[in-house]
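Notes from the 1:1 (GR / supervisor)

We went over the backlog. Supervisor wanted to see one worked example end to end before approving the batch request, so GR pasted a single chain during the call. The sequence is below; no edits were made to it. Supervisor asked that the structure be written out right there so they could see what the output format looks like.
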Amino acid sequence: MLAFFTYCSVLFIPIIIATIVIYGTIKNVPTFEAFVEGSKEGVSIVLSILPFLIGMLVAIYMFRASGAMDILVNLFSPLFTLFGIPKEVAPLAFVKSISGTASLGLVSELIAKYGPDSLIGRLASTIQGSSDTTLFIITVYFGSVGIKKIGDSLKVGLLADFLGILTSVFFVYIFFY
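Structure output shown during the call:
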């Protein structure tokens, strides 16, 4: 059964591409030209997002390198203990809302150090999949299209991140401990 699903997954993307090309040809759509136009739009989107992306990455690096992350973790340590979150996972709770790549790096470090089947490894993995990168989305995507009023989006996004972390902790303890 595993071999069947592996075989199907390998064929899935080529079948989708072939289906799109065949459908476009049947409908007399110039598929290659449409592809090129879409690529041009993609490049322009990347160029419009790039300054916001660079700014966000620099801010994340400065946040971690300055020691502000450690101060924040120590400040909120009693709150994390109250909710059953180990101190080692606390930085992930902050970085997850900022950058998916940075949080993935933290998860990788935690799993390498504590193992994937440890409480810390399971919590880190579950938190990583629990929510999206709210601040990154607001900074990069909202900024690239010129949205200035982000107050409500920020509040709801951070609330969703917080609830995602609490839900992750709840389910890890329910299912594994």
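Supervisor's comment: Helices lie at 2-26, 31-65, 68-82, 90-95, 100-114, 119-128, 134-144, 151-176.
Batch request approved.
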